[in-house]
Amino acid sequence: MNLTNKKYQDKIVKEYLAYLSKVKGYSSHTVTSYEYDIFQYLEINQDIGEFSLYLKLLSRKNYAKSTINRKITSIKTFLKWASKMDYFDATLIQTVTNLKSEKKLPNILSSSYINKLLDELPFQTTKEIRDKAILELMYSSGLRVSEVANLKIQNFKLNKSIKVLGKGSKERVLPITARAGKSISSYLKVARIELANNKSHDYMFLGIRGGQLSEREIRRIVNLRVGTFPHSLRHTFATHLLEGGADLRVVQELLGHNDPTTTQIYTHVSKKQLKEKFKQSHPRG
Predict the structure, then answer these.
(1) Is 65 a catalytic residue?
(2) Active-site residue 144, yes or no?
């Protein structure tokens, strides 16, 4: 098989996506993004390994620079894998420089706001009990949506910790707050029992039909209950820890970041908020 042959492109891409899912442990959401980017590129580009035509098209469609950079990274990673598998000649991959873009600081919820919001969440129906447990846990431990979706009952420990399967199938054990532990315990004792059926297996969070709660549904729950995106809770968790005096290395471990530079964006967030508080508080600010 050869990637330059249209006849084999679909088969090669599907093999790569299976590799991302089964070997690299990427979430279904990430794999879908790779799939879209790669097929979009192959459809446009006749000369595989060349990027100028593709970049022009993305610019005409007004994609953000950060999105274009992500797409280029996805495609280059795929082409390098294809060359290792002898499906493509690595010498055909042309050098392409990332577009310069301003890094947007993540949206952070204030501690008073998130605490008030979580305290006032309804806690009566089966869905409300489940949703509160999810939100308490996400703010307690900074979990990704995929990590919440894939939690199993046995991952929750009575000593108030939770085992998480992160990116690249890497496990980490995280402490959780007393409130999150209480909410999860209440959910497992009442709501999960009501939701569970033969589709549930041992997944912790279940949908109304008893199966594993999907990543899409978790995003919907966060948006409905908190009015923001799930990653905002993760950003808020990290920033509040740093503002409380936690070491950057500790936050990196809790978030499951391999590269410390990924975590450093939160130090910029904290500095920005420090300046804002200074301006608000100083008599001559």
Answers:
(1) no
(2) yes
Q: Reply yes or no on whether 179 is catalytic.
A: no
Tracing tokens 């620079």 back to the chain, one arrives at 65
Q: Does residue 139 form part of some domain?
A: yes
Distant-in-sequence contacts of 27-34, Cβ < 8 A, 24+ apart:
27/144, 27/145, 27/146, 27/167, 27/215, 28/146, 28/215, 29/145, 29/146, 29/215, 30/146, 33/70, 33/74, 34/74, 34/78
> Which residue out of 41, 54, 187, 266 is catalytically annotated?
266
Q: What is the mean pLDDT of each run of 10 residues along the chain (285 residues)?
A: 89 94 86 92 86 87 86 93 93 85 70 91 95 95 92 88 83 91 94 96 95 94 90 88 84 80 64 53 47
The domain boundary, picked from 63, 92, 121, lies at: 92
**Of residues 163, 179, 219, 257, which has the active-site annotation?**
257
From 71, 130, 144, 192, active-site residue: 144
Number of domains in the chain: 2
- Is 234 an annotated catalytic residue? yes
CATH number of the domain to which 13 belongs: 1.10.150
Q: Are 209 and 195 in contact (CB under 8 A)?
A: no
Instruction: Exactly one of 167, 179, 182, 219 is catalytic; name it.
Output: 167
Domain-embedded: residue 240: no
Q: In what order do the strands lie in the sheet with 171-175?
A: 156-157, 161-165, 171-175
Closest CA to 178 of 118, 124, 232, 238: 118
Catalytic residue among 130, 132, 234, 240: 234
- For residue 29, the tally of other CB atoms under 10 A from its CB is 15
* Residue 117 sits in the same domain as residue 199: yes
187 found inside a domain: yes
Catalytic residue flag (residue 231): yes
The residue among 230, 251, 277 that closes a domain is 230
Query: What domain range is 52 assigned to?
Result: 6-92
